[in-house]
Amino acid sequence: MLLIAEIILGVLFASSITLLLLSIPGSGILSVLSSMFFVSFYMFAGVFLFKAHKANSLAVILSILGISISVIGVLFKILDWPGGMLSLKIGLTSLSIIGLISFFLYPRSKFSVYANLLARSIIYSGVCALMLIANF
User: pTM here?
Assistant: First the structure.
């Protein structure tokens, strides 16, 4: 159930950012609302999504914060608000650390939590890296 909610919110966020880049009227408020729901989902449901009781809870919490900061940084960068670059750099740094931790811990423990963290950190790190090098 949480995975379906994550996919729905991710698609809503991606489509709102696409509409914003196409300069569709009203897409600014849609992107702000969708990013707010996306970040809220990760902040509150992320512990249950990643099954933190089975793995290193510090890695899960850092991953949740990294994803949330990255999503906010993407929104700030596209809307040209101050603090977008800083949020992207902080998010990319924390996601890179989590990616390395997950990469080394997954072969030892075989918890699916670390595979999920690694996949999400790669995806969001790629988005952050693209936003850092993009000129809007």
Answer: 0.78
Q: CB 136: neighbour CB atoms within 10 A?
A: 9
Output the tens digit of pLDDT for each of the chain's 136 residues.
Answer: 677 888 888 888 888 888 888 888 888 888 888 888 888 887 777 767 666 555 567 777 788 888 888 888 888 888 888 988 899 899 899 888 888 888 887 788 777 777 888 888 888 888 888 888 877 6
- Among residues 12, 9, 43, 42, the alpha carbon closest in space to that of 30 is found at 12
